[in-house]
Amino acid sequence: MSALRAGSSARTAVVLASLSLALALASLLGLAFGATPVSLARALSDPASAERAIVEARALRVLLGAVTGAALATAGCAFQALLRNPLGDPFALGVSGGAALGASVAVLLGVGAALVPAAAFVGALAACALVVALARASGAVDARALLLAGVVLNTATSAALSLLRSALPGTRAQRTLSLLLGAIGDEPPSVVATVTAVVLAGAIALWAMAKHMDLLGLGEDTAASLGVSVRRVELAVFVAGSLVVGGAVSVCGLVPFVGLVVPHYSRAWVGGAHRSLLVASGLAGATLLVLADAAARGLFRVLSTEAPVGALTALLGAPFLFVALRKRRVDL
User: Fold this and answer.
1) Is residue 1 part of a domain?
2) At what angle do helices 50-83 and 230-252 cross, to 10 degrees?
3) Residue 8 lies in a domain
């Protein structure tokens, strides 16, 4: 038994090291790739070069993409643990939509950029509460009821976002469009720092509850018999997950399927223990979104425009969900 545990720990360590290396390589690609190709060697060796200035500007965008991808994947992993269902994704549950709506209302009111993540967090938390309330109204708070409630909420928030966009003038309307489509932009350092701090705080809180998530996977009754305060843990995970999602969505908008696909593969790589699974999901999600953003910058470079990164993740995630349903790996 001890040999099996040692082998499992060694495998997990190798996977996490490989994911860390993949993230580092993806970040280098994100720094080098864009509308203007640059030499990383020259950027590092010559502080006065144009390449150094370009790389410094791209570094914030790469960091923001990594933070957003890690946030969505980590939150998806946590929500799947609560629902004991692989469709427990922030986008599917309507949490991302609630966060985007909260951020859009903040833009409508003209609040400072530093307060937009707070508004997105409130929107995400309100979405969680509404989804649970709608599910309870159906008679049972199970995975199917929560996901159906998420579909209803997503429809409502999409309509509200469209109405807000039509009511906003000029640059504010463009900002809400970016939130609706999902886009990683060139944000100022203060905004990137705020979002990173918010996401990190929520992710640490989720990681601290990893053992409780493991026990919830055994069923609510079993977890309660082992000393877990089920309702408190569920509330804490929803709050921490909303904080993580709100921080990411406040600047990058709706980026679907990252929280659905990444935990699925991470679970296959490191197993179901959430202390390792949350870290693996965060690293893999960060890598995926950094690469997706690099692809978004390059797809339409000839036309001097960019594809929304949310559209790319949707194109990647939709076939995965279709295959999973065809093979009946997803149980509604």
Assistant:
1) no
2) 150
3) no
Q: Residue 11 domain-assigned?
A: no
Burial of 244 (C-beta count, 10 Å sphere; 0-12/13-18/19+): buried
What per-residue confidence (pLDDT) applies to 4? 38
* Between 187 and 290, residue with greater pLDDT: 290
Owning domain of residue 24? 20-52+61-326
What is the per-residue DSSP string for 231-300? Answer: HHHHHHHHHHHHHHHHHHHHHH---TTHHHHHHHHHHHHH-S-HHHHHHHHHHHHHHHHHHHHHHHHHHT
Give the length of the chain.
332
Locate 221 and state its tokens: 């009754």
Instruction: State how far the alpha carbon of 264 is from the alpha carbons of 151, 255, 285, in Å.
Output: 21, 17, 11
Q: Return the closest-CA partner of residue 176 out of 102, 234, 112.
A: 102
Dump pLDDT digits (tens) for 254-294: 898 899 899 989 998 998 899 999 999 999 999 999 999 98
User: Taking 60 as the threshold, does the pLDDT of residue 140 lie above it?
Assistant: no
Number of structural domains, the chain?
1
3-state secondary structure 35-87: CCCCCHHHHHHCCCCHHHHHHHHHHHHHHHHHHHHHHHHHHHHHHHHHHCCCC
- In this structure, which amino acid lies at residue 63? L
The CATH number that applies at residue 169 is 1.10.3470.10
Asked, for residue 37, whether it belongs to a domain, the answer is yes
Judge whether 76 and 262 are in contact, CB under 8 Å: yes
